[in-house]
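= Tokenised fold =
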Amino acid sequence: MSELLNFNYPPEQAVERVTFFADVILPLPLPKLYTYRIPFEMNDEVMVGARVIVQFGAKKVLSCIVAEIHQNAPADYQAKYILDVLDDKPIITTPQLKLFKWIADYYMCTLGEVINAALPSALKLSSESRIQLHPHYNPEEDELILAPQEEKIIYALQHNQALTFTDIGNLLQIKSYHKFIKSLIQKEAIIIYEQVSDKFSPKVVKKLRISEHFVQDEGMLEELFNQLAPQPKQLDVLLNYLQKVPVHQDIHLNFKGIEKSELTNSPHLSASSINTLIKKGVLEQFDQVVSRFPVEHQAKLLPMTLSEHQAKAKDEILGLFKEKDTVLLHGVTGSGKTEVYIDLIKHALDGGGQVLYLLPEIALTAQIVQRLMKVFGEKLGVYHSKFSDNERAEVWQGILSGRFQVVVGVRSSVFLPFHDLSLIIIDEEHEASYKQYDPAPRYNARETALMMAHLQGAKTLLGSATPSVETYYNCKTGRWGLVEMHKRFGEAQLPEIELVNTREEQHRKNMHSHFSGKLLTAIEERLNRKEQVILFQNRRGYAPFISCDECSWIPKCKHCAVSLSYHKYNNELRCHYCGYHERMPHDCPACGATTLKSMGFGTEKVEDELKLMLPSADVQRMDLDTTKKKNSYQQIIADFETGKTNVLVGTQMVTKGLDFEHVSLVGILNADTIINFPDFRAHERAYQLFVQVSGRAGRKEKPGAVIIQTRDPLQPIFRKVRSNDYLSLYEHEIEERLRFGYPPFVRMIKVTVKHVDERTSENAAIVLAKDLTDRLGKQQVLGPEVPYIFKIRNLFLQEVHIKLPRETTNLRSAKGQIAQAIFNLKLLPDFKDVRIVADVDPV
């Protein structure tokens, strides 16, 4: 909507009446809620969970969410009036509001930041101050004395319907332009208004049908044919319509009509003839609101039947749900966990509840949605960031209306307005992708979903072949239930895993660029047998960096302390942290030499070299660069599923739950970089990645093989991967974490200090760490320290790590102390511009 909003209300009438106030959540990082006065005529319209429009500050008009309604006027300021109400029913449910408050409290952010992340953009309103000519002012006739700057503004408004404040500043090329706007308001030459646009709009299609009086009587329709006989093109349109809509068989079919595009897109029909029939009243054009998620009518499928071990797992899960709210399904890759999920979803829907099915990556939704759509049809909604604003808003509204009973989505799906949730499934629960890094709220969707289930009385099923250490610990200590599936579905066997020592292969001169002879031969054999191959390299781009052979110059990002990665496809150097990019130089800027070489390799180089070595291979790449477009995931996966491509090269995206029946070989090109990452979770993550990507090989009756290239085949992690020995990994990791004080025995909070000046950042971190140590104790505070990448987006970073023992720490009190220390630091004049970010449970 777009309208003039009047900010001035008449004085209170003498009649005594009840005055209500509303605490609202503004979509801004504000520490407190603001209180607004509800106009008497809106008393019955304003509801908790609905959107209202308010004026904030001198210029801004914002939409916000009503959090509470009461009769207590604010003590410190005079409450402004709510300007308008946007919703006739709440768009945020009571359980949602409770969840949002928990997120703000637990992840140490504001409710405004949570609302800003939760609501689709189409349900948030944009607002900017604008000026236009006063309706009663005529510049040609009214003789006002205007300053030269004022004349410029009036002249611009004569040629533009409205201008923003920014437009005025650019027009006058001065900073202090507000006085001229104020002067023109006093002279009644202009008015200020706020243009507020409700972004959500339903999808509307134009449809056609024959005007009703022609189909009520067969004689009228015959007469119409006679009248159109001299106009063969118009007659063709009518006959084409009747072929698509046989009204002679059922007159009611005409009411629904057909989409106008079905006729206009036909090469045999004249668009002008269609429009002529509309003008004559033969065809009636009308608009119809349609879903952005049309369900294709599919053949009725036979009921899905679980295997014996799948049925046993399902029964065990339902049995555990009687006494526990959370259960882990620990099943080896290919054990058929998805079929168990589907059966449990059916069970939940039969009980009248809603279901949320969480996945860690958008790439996974393409395959899963196809399977679920065949079972649940139009009850299924899909929610992720590749959808447009309007598509996400439609899913939001569809859940509120009850249209979608099952939702498949990525981490942001935990914000959706479920009101009768009975089951949450978190597939691949170990994945770090469930954690939001920037901006706030820095939530973990797994932990948030667990709280969501608690608030709605729902059950949670976690699923993984390689559970996180924390999750398995909760099962082993009896807090959560545990169900295990040790067999692959059907007759499928776990793949054979072979290690190739690339150090020895190089000595024998048996390396072909980054491919060992054994891996290349294995790929060729599979391609000759019409089988498929997945190659995993955990780095995108062509090469991690380039270097000058003469002077060793390496190009660095201008804004971050990292080298620029080479992307051959765009012939550019790119920073993977801030997005800065520049053209690939022809010669070295430092010494002028032309001997620039790429160092290391990424997925783009793997794809490029494989096409040269094996020209008969149809190679496709799946990484962040090739999946930027909305439907690129689906297209890449569809091409691989149908055999259009037979080698898929990818980053971690190819490791997560994708199921391709013709894949018989998986190659891991450089395992060492994953194992040797400086993080206490490095071995756990390496094991998870190797097992997950290995699980893509050998489904159904075809035996699979995995070839891992490494310079250190004696690394203990490989023995655990080859024997699929998760328990051994868990026992080693849990002992290490107990000894050195890491999760699950402590809660960790990482506080990052950022500033454009390196010394200021360092000094601020030292002061903060001292205050935190005084409050929490020396054993609980580590640092400050400079992170591995110490500069991102022109800001120098320092980190302070806080460890809070689970058994002895009052978490709420400790977070209060951390928040107070951060607040005190910001009060110091030297550090008022320092940015401080608290990340609870970093991964």
User: Anything to note?
Assistant: The chain has six domains: 128-198, 212-281, 308-485, 496-540+603-735, 543-600, 746-840. The first strand starts at residue 20 and ends at 25. The CA atoms of residues 784 and 800 lie 5 Å apart. Confidence is low (pLDDT under 50) at residues 1-15, 296-302.
